[in-house]
Specification:
3 helices, 46% strand, 141 residues
Length: 141
């Protein structure tokens, strides 16, 4: 199991940060490993996503398992060789929002052989993605 955690303060109201992150269609704007996203139900809790993890590409379903407005989003994806869960935590800090993202990934079968490489890449990629998200939100008028 690979666990990766990143966090930052975004200088925007928590309501704006939560709304942007909750709209999973925005993932392609800041998450470099997400190539395409499409909502597949009207509740916008399930998405068809195309993921590029460097060593392999996946077309899978990303599902929001839990959403508590302005506080928490838990979403997961299960594929043949892996399963991952993303936990987004939102905390109001004055006028700003502290965003913490925890990713838990379990590689299965032959994919387990790539765990060391995935672990190294995942941390740096998550940091870059969070930096991109922060930049997008803070420059938004």
């Amino acid at each position: 199991m690979i666990e990766t955690k990143v966090e930052t303060i975004i200088h925007k109201p928590i309501t704006e940060v939560y709304a942007y992150v909750r709209n999973m269609l925005n993932q392609t704007s800041y998450n470099q490993s997400i190539l395409a996203v499409e909502a597949i139900n009207k509740e916008a809790t399930e998405y068809k996503i195309q993921i590029d993890l460097g060593i392999f590409k996946l077309n899978e379903i990303y599902k929001i398992n839990e959403a508590v407005e302005n506080k928490l989003i838990i979403a997961s994806c299960t594929a043949n060789g892996m399963k991952f869960t993303d936990r987004y935590e939102f905390l109001e800090t004055g006028k700003d929002c502290q965003l913490t993202i925890l990713d838990k990934m379990e590689l299965k079968g032959l994919f387990q052989l790539s765990e060391g490489l995935v672990k190294m890449n995942l941390k740096s990629q998550m940091k870059e993605n969070l930096h991109s998200l922060k930049k997008i939100l803070e420059t938004k008028i």
